[in-house]
């Protein structure tokens, strides 16, 4: 179960222990939060896949499957939905990851290494930042509709 979840009309947050069994709760939260921010089910599913991949990487690599705090937030910013994932585990350098050779025969491909490719394919923007406080991943998805002043969606 999530350690803490909050929501406001503009921002949804989740604080959770980074354990494999947390992924289902995270996935449910992503679907609820992104749809509350204006994404349809198809785009929310794409965001859910990207967040699942990112959180799996935090669990396995940042914390070596030993658990640790992870904070997620989701908010609407104009015509975009932004999801932020923050952890305090081992630093990750996305530049050190070699791009997969998608044209290579299956038997010649390395196992793994597609996570960043999937995140970039599913999202409109993927940005990693690091500081002494931890790791932050921000991913954005264009929202195909605008929210009018009455809080109702209207096509762009």
Number of helices: 3
Major sheet description: 6 strands, antiparallel
- Spatially, the strands of the biggest sheet line up as 1-2-3-4-6-5
Look at the helices and sheets and give the structural class: alpha+beta
Q: What percentage of amino acids are in beta strands?
A: 25-35%
What proportion of the residues is helical, as a percent range?
A: 25-40%
C-alpha end-to-end distance: 37 Å
CATH superfamily: Histidine kinase-like ATPase, C-terminal domain
Radius of gyration: 16 Å
The CATH class name reads Alpha Beta
Can you count the beta strands?
8
- The shape is globular
Order of helices and strands: EEHHEEHEEEE
Our count of domains comes out at 1
Give the overall average pLDDT: 84
Spans where pLDDT lies below 50 across 5 or more residues: none
What CATH calls the topology is Heat Shock Protein 90
Assigned CATH architecture: 2-Layer Sandwich
